[in-house]
Amino acid sequence: MSQTKQSRLKVYNTLTRHLDEFDPIHPGRVNMFVCGPTVYDVSHIGHGKSYVAYDIIARYLRKRGYSVFFVLNITDIDDKIINRAKETKEDPLKLSERYSQAFYKDMKDLHVDSVNLYAKASDYIPEIINQIKGLVDKGIAYKITGGVYFDISKFPEYGKLSRQNLEQLTVHRVDPDPEKQNPGDFVLWKSQKPGEIAWDSPWGKGRPGWHIEDTAITLTHFGPTYDLHGGGTELIFPHHEAEIAQAEGLTGKKPLAKYWAHTGLLSIKGQEMHKSLGNFVPIQDAIQKVGVEALRVLYASTHYRSPLDYTEDTLVQAASLARRFRRAYDQLQRMTGVKAESKASKELLKQKVDEARIEFFSTMDDDFNTPGALAAYIKIVGIAEEHGKSVSTESASMLLNVMKDLASVLGLLETESIPRQEFLQLVNLLTSLRNDLRAKHEYALSDRIREQMQKAGVTVEDEAQ
Protein backbone atom coordinates (compact mmCIF):
# COMPACT_ATOMS: atom_id res chain seq x y z
CA MET A 1 0.00 0.00 0.00
CA SER A 2 1.27 3.48 -0.76
CA GLN A 3 1.26 6.01 2.01
CA THR A 4 -0.63 9.28 1.59
CA LYS A 5 1.34 12.45 2.28
CA GLN A 6 4.48 10.41 2.69
CA SER A 7 7.16 12.02 4.87
CA ARG A 8 10.81 12.09 3.90
CA LEU A 9 12.90 9.17 5.09
CA LYS A 10 15.80 10.22 7.29
CA VAL A 11 18.70 8.01 8.34
CA TYR A 12 21.24 8.61 11.08
CA ASN A 13 24.57 8.59 9.27
CA THR A 14 27.60 7.64 11.37
CA LEU A 15 29.81 9.38 8.80
CA THR A 16 28.13 12.79 9.21
CA ARG A 17 26.77 12.28 12.76
CA HIS A 18 23.47 13.70 11.53
CA LEU A 19 20.00 12.55 10.54
CA ASP A 20 20.39 12.81 6.78
CA GLU A 21 17.62 12.70 4.22
CA PHE A 22 17.81 9.41 2.37
CA ASP A 23 18.64 10.14 -1.24
CA PRO A 24 20.14 7.13 -3.05
CA ILE A 25 22.85 7.57 -5.68
CA HIS A 26 20.53 6.17 -8.35
CA PRO A 27 16.86 7.19 -7.94
CA GLY A 28 14.66 4.29 -6.91
CA ARG A 29 17.60 1.90 -6.36
CA VAL A 30 19.48 1.05 -3.17
CA ASN A 31 22.72 -0.93 -2.98
CA MET A 32 23.11 -2.15 0.59
CA PHE A 33 25.98 -4.04 2.21
CA VAL A 34 26.08 -5.46 5.75
CA CYS A 35 29.03 -7.09 7.48
CA GLY A 36 28.12 -10.68 8.24
CA PRO A 37 29.54 -13.24 10.69
CA THR A 38 32.93 -14.85 11.02
CA VAL A 39 31.77 -18.45 10.82
CA TYR A 40 33.77 -20.37 13.41
CA ASP A 41 30.87 -21.12 15.79
CA VAL A 42 27.06 -21.04 15.92
CA SER A 43 25.39 -17.63 15.82
CA HIS A 44 23.84 -16.20 18.97
CA ILE A 45 20.93 -13.87 19.69
CA GLY A 46 23.24 -10.84 19.56
CA HIS A 47 23.96 -11.62 15.92
CA GLY A 48 20.21 -12.08 15.44
CA LYS A 49 19.51 -8.55 16.72
CA SER A 50 21.76 -7.00 14.09
CA TYR A 51 20.62 -9.06 11.11
CA VAL A 52 16.91 -8.71 11.95
CA ALA A 53 17.43 -4.94 12.18
CA TYR A 54 18.92 -4.78 8.68
CA ASP A 55 16.26 -7.16 7.41
CA ILE A 56 13.59 -4.74 8.64
CA ILE A 57 15.45 -1.83 7.04
CA ALA A 58 15.59 -3.64 3.68
CA ARG A 59 11.93 -4.66 3.97
CA TYR A 60 10.93 -1.07 4.68
CA LEU A 61 12.96 0.35 1.81
CA ARG A 62 11.21 -2.09 -0.52
CA LYS A 63 7.84 -1.19 0.99
CA ARG A 64 8.61 2.42 0.13
CA GLY A 65 9.15 1.39 -3.48
CA TYR A 66 12.94 1.09 -3.71
CA SER A 67 14.61 -1.72 -5.61
CA VAL A 68 17.10 -3.04 -3.04
CA PHE A 69 20.17 -5.17 -3.76
CA PHE A 70 21.21 -6.42 -0.32
CA VAL A 71 24.58 -8.16 0.03
CA LEU A 72 25.71 -9.72 3.31
CA ASN A 73 29.23 -11.07 3.53
CA ILE A 74 30.45 -14.26 5.19
CA THR A 75 33.97 -14.14 6.61
CA ASP A 76 35.14 -17.70 6.03
CA ILE A 77 38.90 -16.98 6.23
CA ASP A 78 40.14 -15.66 9.56
CA ASP A 79 42.47 -16.33 12.48
CA LYS A 80 39.55 -17.52 14.63
CA ILE A 81 38.53 -20.05 12.00
CA ILE A 82 42.10 -21.32 11.60
CA ASN A 83 42.53 -21.66 15.37
CA ARG A 84 39.20 -23.48 15.77
CA ALA A 85 40.09 -25.80 12.88
CA LYS A 86 43.35 -26.70 14.63
CA GLU A 87 41.39 -27.55 17.77
CA THR A 88 38.92 -29.77 15.89
CA LYS A 89 41.52 -31.07 13.42
CA GLU A 90 39.38 -29.97 10.47
CA ASP A 91 40.15 -28.24 7.20
CA PRO A 92 39.45 -24.52 7.86
CA LEU A 93 37.25 -24.07 4.80
CA LYS A 94 35.24 -27.20 5.64
CA LEU A 95 34.71 -25.93 9.17
CA SER A 96 33.64 -22.50 7.96
CA GLU A 97 31.32 -24.09 5.39
CA ARG A 98 29.64 -26.13 8.13
CA TYR A 99 29.02 -23.03 10.22
CA SER A 100 27.99 -21.05 7.12
CA GLN A 101 25.21 -23.58 6.51
CA ALA A 102 24.15 -23.28 10.15
CA PHE A 103 24.05 -19.49 9.76
CA TYR A 104 21.89 -19.73 6.61
CA LYS A 105 19.44 -21.88 8.57
CA ASP A 106 19.42 -19.36 11.42
CA MET A 107 18.57 -16.57 9.00
CA LYS A 108 15.86 -18.61 7.30
CA ASP A 109 14.31 -19.55 10.64
CA LEU A 110 14.46 -15.90 11.80
CA HIS A 111 12.68 -14.88 8.58
CA VAL A 112 15.64 -12.78 7.49
CA ASP A 113 14.64 -13.22 3.86
CA SER A 114 15.57 -9.84 2.39
CA VAL A 115 19.21 -10.70 1.59
CA ASN A 116 19.87 -11.05 -2.15
CA LEU A 117 23.40 -12.42 -1.90
CA TYR A 118 25.49 -14.09 0.78
CA ALA A 119 29.05 -13.37 -0.37
CA LYS A 120 31.79 -15.62 1.01
CA ALA A 121 35.26 -14.06 1.22
CA SER A 122 36.98 -17.17 -0.15
CA ASP A 123 35.09 -16.73 -3.43
CA TYR A 124 36.80 -13.37 -4.05
CA ILE A 125 40.52 -14.18 -3.79
CA PRO A 126 41.35 -12.95 -7.35
CA GLU A 127 39.52 -9.66 -6.70
CA ILE A 128 41.28 -9.25 -3.35
CA ILE A 129 44.71 -9.80 -4.94
CA ASN A 130 43.95 -7.33 -7.75
CA GLN A 131 42.89 -4.64 -5.31
CA ILE A 132 45.96 -5.11 -3.11
CA LYS A 133 48.13 -4.96 -6.23
CA GLY A 134 46.45 -1.67 -7.16
CA LEU A 135 47.20 -0.22 -3.72
CA VAL A 136 50.83 -1.34 -3.91
CA ASP A 137 51.17 0.15 -7.41
CA LYS A 138 49.84 3.48 -6.12
CA GLY A 139 52.36 3.51 -3.28
CA ILE A 140 49.62 3.24 -0.62
CA ALA A 141 50.57 -0.30 0.45
CA TYR A 142 53.93 -1.99 0.99
CA LYS A 143 55.40 -5.45 1.50
CA ILE A 144 57.26 -6.59 4.61
CA THR A 145 58.09 -10.03 6.01
CA GLY A 146 54.66 -10.48 7.59
CA GLY A 147 52.72 -9.57 4.48
CA VAL A 148 51.36 -6.50 2.71
CA TYR A 149 50.26 -3.49 4.78
CA PHE A 150 48.23 -0.34 4.13
CA ASP A 151 50.16 2.87 4.83
CA ILE A 152 47.69 5.04 6.74
CA SER A 153 49.92 8.11 6.33
CA LYS A 154 49.09 8.02 2.61
CA PHE A 155 45.36 8.45 3.34
CA PRO A 156 44.92 11.77 5.20
CA GLU A 157 41.22 11.15 5.91
CA TYR A 158 41.89 7.97 7.89
CA GLY A 159 39.81 8.28 11.05
CA LYS A 160 36.94 10.30 9.55
CA LEU A 161 34.30 7.66 10.37
CA SER A 162 35.33 7.10 13.98
CA ARG A 163 36.27 10.79 14.45
CA GLN A 164 39.74 9.96 15.70
CA ASN A 165 43.12 11.37 14.72
CA LEU A 166 46.15 9.27 13.79
CA GLU A 167 47.64 9.44 17.29
CA GLN A 168 44.41 8.15 18.86
CA LEU A 169 44.15 5.40 16.26
CA THR A 170 47.72 4.25 16.89
CA VAL A 171 46.90 3.58 20.55
CA HIS A 172 44.31 0.99 19.48
CA ARG A 173 46.70 -1.19 17.49
CA VAL A 174 47.28 -4.67 18.88
CA ASP A 175 49.68 -6.05 16.24
CA PRO A 176 52.95 -4.10 16.57
CA ASP A 177 55.62 -5.02 14.02
CA PRO A 178 58.99 -3.25 13.91
CA GLU A 179 58.98 -3.47 10.10
CA LYS A 180 55.74 -1.50 9.78
CA GLN A 181 56.17 2.08 8.56
CA ASN A 182 53.50 3.34 10.99
CA PRO A 183 52.19 1.61 14.14
CA GLY A 184 48.62 2.01 12.86
CA ASP A 185 49.19 0.39 9.45
CA PHE A 186 46.88 -2.59 8.94
CA VAL A 187 47.36 -5.83 7.08
CA LEU A 188 45.99 -6.47 3.59
CA TRP A 189 47.69 -9.81 2.90
CA LYS A 190 49.10 -12.14 5.57
CA SER A 191 52.15 -14.22 4.71
CA GLN A 192 51.60 -17.93 5.25
CA LYS A 193 52.61 -19.44 8.57
CA PRO A 194 53.48 -23.15 8.82
CA GLY A 195 50.40 -25.33 8.39
CA GLU A 196 48.04 -22.46 7.52
CA ILE A 197 45.70 -22.33 4.55
CA ALA A 198 47.14 -20.14 1.77
CA TRP A 199 46.74 -18.93 -1.80
CA ASP A 200 49.39 -17.92 -4.33
CA SER A 201 49.93 -14.19 -4.80
CA PRO A 202 52.57 -11.76 -6.17
CA TRP A 203 53.86 -11.49 -2.56
CA GLY A 204 54.12 -15.22 -1.96
CA LYS A 205 51.67 -17.66 -0.40
CA GLY A 206 49.29 -16.17 2.10
CA ARG A 207 45.70 -15.15 2.77
CA PRO A 208 43.66 -11.95 2.89
CA GLY A 209 43.44 -9.62 5.83
CA TRP A 210 39.97 -9.15 7.28
CA HIS A 211 39.29 -5.61 6.03
CA ILE A 212 40.13 -6.14 2.35
CA GLU A 213 37.62 -8.98 2.02
CA ASP A 214 34.61 -6.68 2.30
CA THR A 215 36.10 -4.04 0.02
CA ALA A 216 36.65 -6.67 -2.67
CA ILE A 217 33.03 -7.77 -2.42
CA THR A 218 31.51 -4.28 -2.60
CA LEU A 219 33.75 -3.02 -5.41
CA THR A 220 32.88 -6.16 -7.40
CA HIS A 221 29.11 -5.83 -7.03
CA PHE A 222 28.50 -2.11 -6.50
CA GLY A 223 31.50 -0.28 -7.96
CA PRO A 224 33.45 2.45 -6.11
CA THR A 225 30.43 4.02 -4.35
CA TYR A 226 27.13 2.69 -3.05
CA ASP A 227 24.27 3.70 -0.81
CA LEU A 228 24.15 1.99 2.58
CA HIS A 229 26.71 0.13 4.68
CA GLY A 230 25.66 -1.55 7.91
CA GLY A 231 27.24 -3.41 10.80
CA GLY A 232 27.56 -3.40 14.57
CA THR A 233 28.94 -0.37 16.44
CA GLU A 234 32.00 -2.42 17.38
CA LEU A 235 33.01 -2.46 13.69
CA ILE A 236 33.31 1.30 13.23
CA PHE A 237 37.00 1.07 14.10
CA PRO A 238 39.12 -0.49 12.82
CA HIS A 239 37.08 -2.48 10.31
CA HIS A 240 34.89 0.12 8.62
CA GLU A 241 37.57 2.78 8.89
CA ALA A 242 39.92 0.46 7.01
CA GLU A 243 37.30 -0.32 4.35
CA ILE A 244 36.99 3.38 3.58
CA ALA A 245 40.76 3.89 3.38
CA GLN A 246 41.28 0.88 1.10
CA ALA A 247 38.46 1.63 -1.34
CA GLU A 248 38.78 5.40 -1.54
CA GLY A 249 42.57 5.17 -1.63
CA LEU A 250 42.39 2.73 -4.55
CA THR A 251 39.62 4.31 -6.64
CA GLY A 252 40.03 7.97 -5.73
CA LYS A 253 36.24 8.19 -5.50
CA LYS A 254 34.25 8.95 -2.37
CA PRO A 255 32.31 8.27 -0.36
CA LEU A 256 32.64 4.50 -0.39
CA ALA A 257 29.17 4.39 1.17
CA LYS A 258 26.89 7.40 1.29
CA TYR A 259 25.18 6.28 4.52
CA TRP A 260 26.76 4.31 7.38
CA ALA A 261 24.38 2.62 9.84
CA HIS A 262 25.43 0.82 13.03
CA THR A 263 23.45 -1.39 15.38
CA GLY A 264 23.72 -1.39 19.16
CA LEU A 265 24.96 -4.49 20.96
CA LEU A 266 22.91 -7.01 22.93
CA SER A 267 23.79 -7.86 26.51
CA ILE A 268 22.34 -10.30 29.03
CA LYS A 269 21.56 -8.80 32.42
CA GLY A 270 24.05 -6.05 31.68
CA GLN A 271 26.87 -8.41 30.69
CA GLU A 272 28.35 -9.11 27.28
CA MET A 273 27.56 -12.57 25.96
CA HIS A 274 30.38 -15.09 26.35
CA LYS A 275 30.44 -18.87 26.61
CA SER A 276 32.82 -18.52 29.57
CA LEU A 277 30.13 -16.61 31.48
CA GLY A 278 27.48 -19.24 30.74
CA ASN A 279 25.17 -16.68 29.13
CA PHE A 280 25.69 -17.59 25.47
CA VAL A 281 22.25 -18.09 23.84
CA PRO A 282 22.33 -19.60 20.33
CA ILE A 283 19.65 -18.39 17.92
CA GLN A 284 18.21 -21.88 17.56
CA ASP A 285 17.82 -22.25 21.34
CA ALA A 286 15.91 -18.96 21.56
CA ILE A 287 13.65 -19.92 18.65
CA GLN A 288 12.84 -23.25 20.30
CA LYS A 289 12.07 -21.48 23.57
CA VAL A 290 9.76 -18.65 22.47
CA GLY A 291 9.35 -18.77 18.70
CA VAL A 292 10.49 -16.55 15.86
CA GLU A 293 7.83 -13.85 16.15
CA ALA A 294 8.58 -13.28 19.84
CA LEU A 295 12.25 -12.74 19.01
CA ARG A 296 11.45 -10.34 16.20
CA VAL A 297 9.10 -8.37 18.46
CA LEU A 298 11.85 -8.26 21.09
CA TYR A 299 14.39 -6.93 18.59
CA ALA A 300 11.95 -4.39 17.12
CA SER A 301 11.04 -3.07 20.59
CA THR A 302 14.46 -1.39 20.75
CA HIS A 303 15.77 1.10 18.19
CA TYR A 304 18.41 -0.52 16.00
CA ARG A 305 21.10 1.95 17.15
CA SER A 306 20.40 1.33 20.83
CA PRO A 307 21.77 -1.49 22.99
CA LEU A 308 19.35 -4.20 24.10
CA ASP A 309 19.49 -5.92 27.49
CA TYR A 310 18.07 -9.41 27.09
CA THR A 311 16.18 -10.61 30.18
CA GLU A 312 13.50 -13.20 30.86
CA ASP A 313 11.00 -10.41 31.56
CA THR A 314 11.57 -8.65 28.23
CA LEU A 315 11.35 -11.99 26.44
CA VAL A 316 8.06 -12.90 28.14
CA GLN A 317 6.61 -9.49 27.26
CA ALA A 318 7.66 -9.86 23.63
CA ALA A 319 6.17 -13.36 23.42
CA SER A 320 2.89 -12.11 24.92
CA LEU A 321 2.73 -9.27 22.39
CA ALA A 322 3.45 -11.61 19.48
CA ARG A 323 0.61 -13.92 20.60
CA ARG A 324 -1.70 -10.92 20.90
CA PHE A 325 -0.99 -9.89 17.30
CA ARG A 326 -1.72 -13.42 16.09
CA ARG A 327 -4.95 -13.74 18.11
CA ALA A 328 -6.34 -10.47 16.78
CA TYR A 329 -5.51 -11.46 13.21
CA ASP A 330 -7.02 -14.94 13.57
CA GLN A 331 -10.18 -13.54 15.14
CA LEU A 332 -10.75 -11.34 12.10
CA GLN A 333 -10.01 -14.20 9.72
CA ARG A 334 -12.71 -16.34 11.34
CA MET A 335 -15.41 -13.73 10.81
CA THR A 336 -18.21 -14.72 8.42
CA GLY A 337 -21.70 -13.47 7.75
CA VAL A 338 -21.60 -10.40 9.98
CA LYS A 339 -24.26 -7.80 9.23
CA ALA A 340 -23.30 -4.56 7.50
CA GLU A 341 -22.19 -1.52 9.51
CA SER A 342 -23.52 1.97 9.10
CA LYS A 343 -21.61 4.17 6.69
CA ALA A 344 -20.60 6.49 9.55
CA SER A 345 -19.23 3.60 11.65
CA LYS A 346 -17.31 2.23 8.70
CA GLU A 347 -15.74 5.62 7.90
CA LEU A 348 -14.82 6.26 11.54
CA LEU A 349 -13.13 2.86 11.77
CA LYS A 350 -11.18 3.47 8.57
CA GLN A 351 -10.11 6.91 9.81
CA LYS A 352 -8.70 5.43 13.03
CA VAL A 353 -6.83 2.74 11.11
CA ASP A 354 -5.47 5.25 8.59
CA GLU A 355 -4.19 7.51 11.38
CA ALA A 356 -2.33 4.62 13.01
CA ARG A 357 -1.00 3.49 9.65
CA ILE A 358 0.35 6.96 8.85
CA GLU A 359 1.97 7.01 12.30
CA PHE A 360 3.64 3.67 11.48
CA PHE A 361 5.21 5.05 8.31
CA SER A 362 6.14 8.38 9.92
CA THR A 363 8.03 6.67 12.73
CA MET A 364 9.80 4.32 10.31
CA ASP A 365 10.77 7.36 8.24
CA ASP A 366 12.49 8.68 11.37
CA ASP A 367 15.63 6.53 11.13
CA PHE A 368 13.70 3.22 11.01
CA ASN A 369 12.17 3.76 14.46
CA THR A 370 10.77 0.28 15.10
CA PRO A 371 9.62 0.96 18.70
CA GLY A 372 7.43 3.76 17.33
CA ALA A 373 6.22 1.53 14.51
CA LEU A 374 5.34 -1.20 17.03
CA ALA A 375 3.36 1.33 19.09
CA ALA A 376 1.38 2.32 15.98
CA TYR A 377 0.82 -1.33 15.12
CA ILE A 378 -0.46 -2.03 18.63
CA LYS A 379 -3.07 0.70 18.07
CA ILE A 380 -4.31 -1.10 14.97
CA VAL A 381 -4.40 -4.39 16.86
CA GLY A 382 -6.36 -2.67 19.61
CA ILE A 383 -8.89 -1.45 17.04
CA ALA A 384 -9.19 -5.00 15.70
CA GLU A 385 -9.73 -6.37 19.22
CA GLU A 386 -12.34 -3.73 20.05
CA HIS A 387 -14.36 -3.99 16.86
CA GLY A 388 -13.48 -7.51 15.72
CA LYS A 389 -16.85 -9.03 16.56
CA SER A 390 -19.06 -6.25 15.25
CA VAL A 391 -17.51 -5.06 11.99
CA SER A 392 -18.74 -5.97 8.55
CA THR A 393 -16.91 -8.44 6.36
CA GLU A 394 -15.66 -5.49 4.32
CA SER A 395 -14.17 -3.72 7.36
CA ALA A 396 -12.68 -6.97 8.62
CA SER A 397 -10.98 -7.43 5.26
CA MET A 398 -9.63 -3.87 5.44
CA LEU A 399 -8.21 -4.47 8.90
CA LEU A 400 -6.67 -7.78 7.86
CA ASN A 401 -4.98 -6.20 4.85
CA VAL A 402 -3.48 -3.37 6.91
CA MET A 403 -2.33 -5.69 9.68
CA LYS A 404 -0.69 -8.06 7.20
CA ASP A 405 0.83 -5.22 5.14
CA LEU A 406 2.51 -3.52 8.10
CA ALA A 407 3.48 -6.82 9.71
CA SER A 408 5.39 -7.67 6.54
CA VAL A 409 7.78 -4.78 7.34
CA LEU A 410 8.48 -6.14 10.83
CA GLY A 411 8.54 -9.76 9.67
CA LEU A 412 5.50 -10.77 11.74
CA LEU A 413 2.39 -12.88 11.02
CA GLU A 414 4.56 -15.10 8.85
CA THR A 415 4.94 -18.23 11.00
CA GLU A 416 2.62 -21.00 9.87
CA SER A 417 3.14 -24.48 11.25
CA ILE A 418 0.19 -25.53 9.07
CA PRO A 419 -1.52 -23.56 6.27
CA ARG A 420 -3.81 -20.86 7.67
CA GLN A 421 -6.89 -22.08 5.80
CA GLU A 422 -6.52 -25.58 7.20
CA PHE A 423 -5.89 -24.15 10.66
CA LEU A 424 -9.06 -22.08 10.50
CA GLN A 425 -11.05 -25.09 9.32
CA LEU A 426 -9.76 -27.01 12.36
CA VAL A 427 -10.70 -24.11 14.68
CA ASN A 428 -14.22 -23.98 13.22
CA LEU A 429 -14.59 -27.76 13.65
CA LEU A 430 -13.49 -27.61 17.30
CA THR A 431 -15.77 -24.63 17.94
CA SER A 432 -18.73 -26.54 16.47
CA LEU A 433 -17.83 -29.61 18.56
CA ARG A 434 -17.71 -27.51 21.74
CA ASN A 435 -21.09 -26.02 20.99
CA ASP A 436 -22.55 -29.52 20.61
CA LEU A 437 -20.96 -30.64 23.88
CA ARG A 438 -22.27 -27.59 25.74
CA ALA A 439 -25.76 -28.19 24.34
CA LYS A 440 -25.52 -31.68 25.87
CA HIS A 441 -24.26 -30.17 29.16
CA GLU A 442 -20.91 -31.98 28.80
CA TYR A 443 -19.03 -28.97 30.17
CA ALA A 444 -15.92 -30.76 31.45
CA LEU A 445 -14.85 -31.98 28.00
CA SER A 446 -15.90 -28.66 26.43
CA ASP A 447 -13.70 -26.79 28.91
CA ARG A 448 -10.72 -29.04 28.18
CA ILE A 449 -11.02 -28.31 24.45
CA ARG A 450 -11.25 -24.58 25.18
CA GLU A 451 -8.10 -24.68 27.32
CA GLN A 452 -6.14 -26.41 24.57
CA MET A 453 -7.40 -23.94 21.96
CA GLN A 454 -6.35 -21.01 24.13
CA LYS A 455 -2.88 -22.52 24.58
CA ALA A 456 -2.65 -22.56 20.78
CA GLY A 457 -3.43 -18.83 20.70
CA VAL A 458 -7.14 -19.12 19.81
CA THR A 459 -9.45 -16.85 21.78
CA VAL A 460 -12.59 -18.71 22.94
CA GLU A 461 -15.47 -16.91 24.64
CA ASP A 462 -18.67 -18.72 25.59
CA GLU A 463 -22.10 -17.14 25.68
CA ALA A 464 -24.38 -17.91 28.58
CA GLN A 465 -26.83 -20.76 27.97
Could you describe the 3D structure shown?
By secondary structure, the chain is α/β, with parallel strands linked by helices. Among the domains are: 10-124 and 211-284, 3-Layer(aba) Sandwich (Rossmann fold), CATH 3.40.50; 320-410, Four Helix Bundle (Hemerythrin (Met), subunit A), CATH 1.20.120; 420-455, no CATH class. It contains 15 helices and 13 strands. The radius of gyration is 26 Å and the shape is elongated. It starts with 9 loop residues before the first strand and ends in a 10-residue tail after the last helix. The model has no long low-confidence stretch (mean pLDDT 91).
Main β-sheet: number of strands, strand sense, barrel status? 5 strands, parallel
Q: What's the number of helices?
A: 15
- Strand % is 5-15%
Cα radius of gyration in angstroms: 26 Å
CATH domain fold name of the domain at 10-124 and 211-284: Rossmann fold
> What's the rounded overall pLDDT mean?
91
How far apart the termini lie comes to 44 Å
* Architecture (CATH level 2) name of the domain at 10-124 and 211-284: 3-Layer(aba) Sandwich
Q: Kindly state the number of beta strands.
A: 13
How would you write the strand order of the largest sheet?
5-4-3-10-11
> What is the overall shape?
elongated
Spell out the CATH superfamily of the domain at 10-124 and 211-284.
Answer: HUPs
What is the H/E order?
A: EEEHEHHEHEEHEEHEHEEHHEHHHHHH
Instruction: Tell me roughly what share of residues is in helical segments.
Output: 40-55%
Tell me the name of the CATH class of the domain at 10-124 and 211-284.
Alpha Beta
Uncertain ranges: none
Class computed from helices, strands and strand pairing: alpha/beta
